[in-house]
Amino acid sequence: SQQGEEDPQALSIQEGENATMNCSYKTSINNLQWYRQNSGRGLVHLILIRSNEREKHSGRLRVTLDTSKKSSSLLITASRAADTASYFCVGGNEKLTFGTGTRLTIIP
Amino acid sequence: NAGVTQTPKFRVLKTGQSMTLLCAQDMNHEYMYWYRQDPGMGLRLIHYSVGEGTTAKGEVPDGYNVSRLKKQNFLLGLESAAPSQTSVYFCASSVRGPPTDTQYFGPGTRLTVL
Predict the structure, then answer these.
(1) How far apart are the C-alpha atoms of B88 and A50, rounded to whole Å?
(2) Do A43 and B92 touch (CB under 8 A)?
(3) Contact across the interface for B100 and A31, Cβ inside 8 Å
(4) Which whole-number Å values give the CA distances from A91 to A6, A33, B35, in the listed order?
(5) Looking at residue A2, what is its pLDDT?
(6) Which partner for A99 in A4, A64, A81, B8 could form a disulfide, CB atoms 3.0-4.6 Å apart?
(7) Closest partner residue to A42 among B44, B59, B108, by Cβ?
(8) Is the pLDDT assigned to residue A1 strictly greater than 70?
């Protein structure tokens, strides 16, 4: 079973706009991580939020976690062309299980 | 630091051929992982290792073998390649294991089995 399912599957926005991606998971987790994957490259860790945290910021990234709804969101503010990538959420318990990702396209 | 490197970057095999993918990390990480990524699917864990000399099965281990003879290297072997193993393979490493640790990924190996 996938421990991280992203929504939407694809998102296109104009440069400078904010991008919001959502993630749902099925079972209880200790933390939730977000990763970015540029086309043809490996994944890069963006941010980790623990199960006892509700919100976390890192630069232009803002992550929220609602354990009662088993959901998380990733907000990227003031998007740039370089943000074009796929974004994956990963629910962490004894294993990390990756979802299928949200493919974000920033239109210059 | 080079981080996590993978060799080769691309490979084309014929059905039934064998090959070994090499993953190397220079961060002294204990944990190493092999994933495969297919179109429209997330990464799926093939095998992993929690330390030198140890290996364990992941979600999709059939058709693959692994070895971790040295802490810095994690090898993935295909004994008899099948078209279903056409995929992009990623190696990753981490200091500790799930759930708290960040995984560092290599650039990937694109394998095509004809």
Answers:
(1) 30
(2) yes
(3) yes
(4) 11, 7, 16
(5) 46
(6) A4
(7) B108
(8) no
